[in-house]
Amino acid sequence: MIFKVGDTVVYPHHGAALIEAIETRTIKGEQKEYLVLKVAQGDLTVRVPADNAEYVGVRDVVGQEGLDKVFQVLRAPHTEEPTNWSRRYKANLEKLASGDVNKVAEVVRDLWRRDQERGLSAGE
User: Fold this and answer.
1) How far apart are CA 99 and CA 95, in angstroms?
2) Domain end (from 61, 81, 107)
3) Of 44, 61, 78, which one is at a domain's C-terminal end?
4) pLDDT tens for residues 81-104?
5) Model-wide pTM > 0.85
6) Would you say residue 122 lies in a domain?
7) Under a CB-based contact definition with an 8 Å cutoff, are residues 19 and 9 in contact?
């Protein structure tokens, strides 16, 4: 993905962010490009190495096709989940941390269904 100043992206766990600048910084004698992200909610500015942006989950905003896929995931039949609370919790955290909008939709779907069927535990 090619990033430009002024683009809106999604930063995991924080949501929409504006690329305010792309700056070069010298760390341990090596020059690297960093994306300067201004998170829309709150007063948070994050600097992410441009070559690691996708690895940490920075992604483009979902378009109509991606949105249609999210709705398919939300409507999909129930999938089998681990019965152990701690395993479910860990799996959900991994999906959320991935930054993949479809995996986040899976977490929303599964937690909503679990809440409807049995109720959620305090940790969920």
Assistant:
1) 7
2) 61
3) 61
4) 777 788 889 999 988 877 788 999
5) no
6) no
7) yes
